[in-house]
Amino acid sequence: MEILNASDAKREFGEVLIKAQHGPVGINRNGKPVAVVISAAEFAQLEALKEEHLREAIQEGIADLQAGKVTDGKAVMDKLRKRISG
């Protein structure tokens, strides 16, 4: 991934947009990473992956509920307190 400092990225924004079509472009400010510019297509792919991951997690939770693999919050906290104190 190409890394630019914020001043260069600002000055060369059009070029940053072109580069982002081929791969992520990192932006640093004061030597620290602050942003990454990616193409709209890559952003859409990331959003779709997040949505699929969330859908799978929800399905897993529903399956746990149907299988009776649930614990109420009080029981979880009691178990954690025992673990910490014991």
Describe the structure.
This protein has 86 residues and is an alpha+beta fold. The protein folds into two domains: 2-38, 3-Layer(aba) Sandwich (YefM-like fold); 43-85, no CATH class. Helices cover 63% and strands 17% of the residues. The protein has a three-stranded mixed sheet. The protein starts with a strand and ends with a helix. The mean pLDDT is 95.
Features:
Antitoxin; alpha+beta; single chain; Antitoxin_Phd/YefM; phD/YefM_antitoxin; three-stranded mixed sheet; YefM-like_sf
What fraction strand?
Answer: 15-25%
Query: H/E order of the elements?
Result: EHHEEHH
Helix proportion of residues, in percent? 55-70%
Shape: elongated
Radius of gyration: 22 Å
Number of strands: 3
Number of domains: 2
User: Which regions have little confidence, pLDDT < 50, spanning 5+ residues?
Assistant: none
- Helix count from the secondary structure assignment: 4
What gap, in angstroms, lies between the N and C termini? 48 Å
- Enumerate the strands of the largest sheet in spatial order, edge to edge or round the barrel: 1-2-3
Biggest sheet, open or closed, and with what strands and sense?
A: 3 strands, mixed
Briefly note the structural class of the backbone.
Answer: alpha+beta
**Average pLDDT taken over every residue:** 95
Quick synopsis:
Pfam families: PhdYeFM_antitox. The chain is 63% helix and 17% strand. The protein has 86 residues and is of the alpha+beta class.
Task: Describe the protein's topology.
Layout (H helix, E strand, L loop, with lengths): L1 E4 H6 L1 H8 L4 E5 L2 E6 L2 H27 L6 H13 L1
Parallel strand pairs: 1-2
Antiparallel strand pairs: 2-3
